[in-house]
Amino acid sequence: MRSIKKKLNMMTAKLLEVPQDVILDLPRLTMIGNMQLYIENHRGVLHFSSELLKLALGQGALEVRGENLVMRGIQTEEVFIEGKIHDIKYINS
To answer: Which InterPro entries match (predicted)?
Structure first.
């Protein structure tokens, strides 16, 4: 049932020319080198330290590991971090 809904949502996104991340409730990541990361469409910060950022997503979580991570901006569904980013991991639940 879940895969049918996902396929229907993808077809709707293409038909209406709406970005798939909006329809499928996926995060959008914009990364500049390994120094800046802008993440949209998250559901909240689960953990933050200078070495780890963990965000809740609509489905699963996102982990960002690095050094000297600093949160430069945070809004309801957006977060902007700077530092030396080593790893980004999507955890599907």
So the answer is: Spore_YabP/YqfC, Spore_YqfC, YabP_sf
